[in-house]
Amino acid sequence: MRLSERVYLVGSGSNGFDLTDPFDCHVYLIDGGSELALIDVGAGMGAPAIIENVKRDGLDPARIRHLIFTHAHGDHAGGGARMRKLLGEPATYLSGVVADSLRRGDEKAISLDVAKLAGIYPDDYHLEPCPIDHELEEGATIQVGNLRLAVFDTPGHSDGHVSLLLEDGGQRMLFAGDVIFHGGKVLLQNIHDCRLDALISSLRKLRQLEITALFPGHLTLSLKDGQRHIERANQVLDRLLVPEQMVAAW
User: Fold this and answer.
1) Distance between CA 129 and CA 183 in Å, rounded?
2) Who is most buried in 5, 98, 155, 209, counting CB within 10 A?
3) Chain-centroid distance, C-alpha 135
4) How far is it, in rounded angstroms, from Cα 64 to Cα 10?
């Protein structure tokens, strides 16, 4: 599904558009001309379907040379090892804060253990260790062909969460992972590294970006005036309240 001249949606689960496996987040493809990149890869079960969607969009999966993870949760990075094998071992990217957790396949470190106990993932789902070639940090850039992604540390939803800014053709597109969603919603969870203070700092940082398009990890996308969603969350914070949750408790 083509979203802009250089951006495609090639994966999405039950909290999105049901393009691939129900457990997948939104999986975005960036076309840098000489090479391609995936931003997040889903939980793993939908990896073959994601690759088929790349082909349907008229692109060659062999040109995917970068797998970039916004954070280490199972629905975003759990399929990293499987996707890497299917694509001939492209370079992998994840925040240095959590890179070793994915390398070890540490389910406790990424809260997969409690997510399975809560029924969010099936009991037989397991995190396969995935090598990480590049550890991301604030201010880093990732070159994908003739495009460049700027890295912003945006913890809060989880430690080691990053957001990625792509500027192309007058557009400023933010791949936000799970830090902010359409309508200014957020996702706070009862897990060890979800922190409201860090999320507030991240939302304050994103308030300055003046983005045109918001590409979150789930739910609706915003192809224009994307900054309004970030601003809405910040206006709630200005009133000393917490932005609305992406999903209701009941």
Assistant:
1) 35
2) 98
3) 15
4) 13
- Is 143 among the domain residues? yes
pLDDT value for 94: 98
Has residue 24 been placed in a domain? yes
* Residue-number span of the structural domain to which 104 is assigned: 7-238
Indicate which CATH number applies to the domain containing 98: 3.60.15.10
* Closest C-alpha to 33, from 5, 68, 69: 5
In a domain, 66, yes or no: yes
Q: How far is residue 119's CA from residue 88's CA, in Å, rounded to a whole number?
A: 33
Of the candidates 151, 86, 79, the residue with the CA atom closest to the CA atom of residue 121: 79
* Interval 197-244: pLDDT, tens: 999 999 999 999 999 999 999 999 999 999 999 999 999 999 999 999
Q: Which of 243, 12, 22, 246 is nearest to 120 (CA)?
A: 22
Residue 75: exposure state from Cβ atoms within 10 A (0-12, 13-18, ≥19): buried
Confidence of residue 98 (pLDDT cuts 50, 70, 90): very high
pLDDT at 249 over 80: no
Question: Which residues make beta-bridge pairs with 164?
Answer: 151, 175
